[in-house]
Amino acid sequence: MAPHCRALTELSRCLKSRYVVTICLFGCFLVYTGHKLDVITVVVRNESAGLLTREVLSSLNASLSTAKAKHQSLQACVRSGGTLENQPCCEHGQFALQGMHVCRKWLNCQELSELEVEKFGQPRRGYKKIYLTTFKEHKIVLMQLPVDENKVTFKQALANYQWLQPNPLVVQLIGVCEITQEFAVEYYELGDARNAEQHIQSLSQEQADERQLLLCMDYAAINLMLHEKGRCNPDQNTLVKTLSQYLLSDDMRLLLSDMDILSEIGVEPTLLNNTHDAHLIAPEHDVVASLSCKSSTNSSCVKALAARQVKLDVWKIPAVCDRMLPRNSNLMRRLADIHAKCKIVDPIQRMSMEDVLLGYSRVFISMYGEQQFLQKTQRYKGILAYDRIEIEINTHHRIVDDIRSV
Prior knowledge:
The protein is an alpha+beta fold.
């Protein structure tokens, strides 16, 4: 019999004695919290109960340590975007692709130069070249900024990609070479969010509803994640451009893929390109764009400007979400109240990005239940709004339990 099985058998025998249940549990608690106990024999009412022998203690210590390590590893894995089933969890500066059992350091200049590439896609903004290549039979994307272009632009983009690694809400960085101004990221077969509709058409209606709602939640979660890190994406002035900046993972979830320009909210002004969709631009945009606290040491200036800039992103939410809900009148009706609050003209009264995600989450829970919600939103861990949702769920359970106990 395996040691941990013997441990559980011994513990079970101990618990059959109704006089020593509390002491058994206390002993297990001490083991779990790290106390290295020795042989303990409990005598209650002339009844001897061998609580934990040395062998049982050793087995329990090992089993509990393994369980704790696995739990911590799973939590770290969730936060870094991987899962224990298909790839290891990597630290900053490392990557792992599907099927890889160990993490490895980002590819360096020499390793990137050895990759055979083919042209893939059109240059973005007229400067970035994109190539498709393979690394150990895995497709990856190599992006290059010509060396005669502004190196500040490359360093800014690279800094953003590195800064957000590892993160389950953004594409995975594979390699970097500052000399040739290029970096590599993971390749995603489903393409960008503009392809979401054609992929959803192959699903059943119930599956389509869930997937479309998750896409809207992901968009809000990614923007909220950036806001909590003091950044926003100012380069989302058209619907097509916005959708092209998000890739679809294998399970059809959104991943931020274009991080070339991330403005520091409350400091840098919000710019507007000549080409833009009017319904994406909030009424107060021009006023907010004229403000800047870059040369100001006044913290209240930064705070006030940041509060107004994040509301510009909230205004975009309904248009982007509706684009991912084609012909889905059921979901549009359920989300109508949330979207109406995103379009309030007065930015002070307009919904916050956190409340948008909370609102979407409540709709999801009402449709699919709390367990399904917790399973599908593990990638949001670390976002403050997700913590609020978990608190709401736990509070709801306590209220239900209190009612049932009456």
